[in-house]
Design a protein that fits this description.
CATH class of the largest domain: Mainly Beta
CATH architecture of the largest domain: Sandwich
Strand content: 15-25%
CATH topology of the largest domain: Immunoglobulin-like
Largest sheet: 5 strands, mixed
Shape: elongated
Order of helices and strands: HHHEEEEEEEEEEHHHEEHHH
Bound molecules: dinuclear copper ion
Number of helices: 9
Number of strands: 12
Radius of gyration: 27 Å
Structural class: alpha+beta
């Protein structure tokens, strides 16, 4: 029987493909950074060795079943010595030969992926929220700091330090192609780092159950060549551009005067809410609602008109807007490049 999605909800397959459809994110695949490479090497070594041990145990079991003797075999000193030797060999020596090298390999991997192992080129604060990611680019000069959401842009070949925390429940940051998981815990700052060794779009996902929309707490890591990253950061640092047409000017007025501005900030306007994502450069992002929807005019319209239908339980309420207000705000948000 085919399961139909509950009314108003997106089929799970559409939701999960939204990330992949935007900007060519590939499904989790081969490691694309030194952290993920170290973890993958260890994983494959453990899997390979585990498989060899499993096959040896199976072969031993088959051999023992094929050669079993009756229960009445009388013990002799020679048999006792053999038994002791077998127990030592298979119960202590062989396991130690397998496990001790793996233990040291694990220590060495932990050392290599330790965020304190070497200095980072860039520090980014990542704050987990139900159910989206707030991303703040730190700079010693506050005028050069900026905030965005659900997309973490990084320069290729540079080590990016992530300061992870949460303002509500425990989340977990996981971008499999770049690094292992690190939890985001309220009242605590965890440090992790990522480094992408080639440009690309890498899908990430909250990996700790954090409530109703945990599965729709996705993010994208976008790795640019360093000059392209600098151009991107310079654009994001800017306040929202002055509206180019009268419709956008009216849209800005409608946005600032609506309930939207209580939760969202658009830098360069009086809208300064910080409960929801910063929308200053919303139109430059690939997805809406933390990876749930591709950022297209149609999805944006659907999201503004009824977020609860698309992401039930999301903190964004359905804001009552007249048809005219909706059209103006919808148009204005698309100009925020
Ligand atoms: Cu946030 Cu699961």
């Amino acid at each position: 029987m085919k399961l139909r999605p509950a009314s108003g909800r997106l089929p799970a397959s559409l939701a999960s493909s939204a990330l992949a459809a935007c900007g060519g994110a590939r499904p989790a695949g081969s490691p694309a950074g030194p952290g993920a490479e170290r973890i993958a090497d260890l994983f494959w070594a453990m899997t390979g060795l585990g498989t060899v041990v499993f096959l040896i145990v199976c072969a031993g079991l088959v051999y023992a079943l094929a050669h079993r003797r009756g229960p009445m075999v009388a013990p002799t000193p020679e048999r006792d010595r053999r038994r002791t030797r077998m127990i030592l060999l298979f119960g202590a020596i062989l396991p130690a030969l397998v496990l001790v090298p793996l233990l040291f390999w694990t220590f060495s991997t932990i050392g290599a992926i330790d965020p304190r192992a070497r200095p980072s080129d860039l520090v980014v604060d990542v704050v987990g929220k139900q159910w989206w990611w707030q991303i703040k680019y730190r700079h010693p000069d506050p005028r050069r700091s900026f905030t965005t959401a659900n997309e973490l842009h990084v320069p290729v070949g540079r080590r990016v330090e992530l300061r992870l925390t949460s303002t509500d429940v425990i989340h977990s940051f996981w971008v499999p192609e770049l690094h292992g998981k690190t939890d985001l815990i309220p009242g605590r700052e965890n440090v992790a780092w990522i480094e992408a060794s080639r440009p690309g779009v890498y899908g990430g996902q909250c990996a700790e159950y954090c409530g109703m929309q945990h599965a729709h707490m996705g993010l994208l890591v976008i790795a640019h060549p360093p000059e392209e990253f600098e151009r991107w950061a310079a654009g994001q640092r800017e306040a929202a551009a002055e509206p180019a047409d009268s419709l956008a000017r009216l849209g800005r007025k409608a946005f600032v005067g609506s309930a939207c501005a209580l939760c969202h900030a658009v830098r360069g306007t009086p809208a300064g809410g910080n409960l929801g994502p910063d929308l200053t450069h919303l139109a430059s992002r690939r997805t809406l609602a933390a990876g749930l929807l591709p950022n297209t005019p149609g999805h944006l319209g659907g999201w503004i008109s009824n977020p609860q239908a698309l992401k039930p339980g999301t903190r964004m309420p359905r804001v009552p807007l007249s048809r005219r207000e909706f059209q103006l705000i919808h148009h204005y948000l698309q100009t925020l490049r």
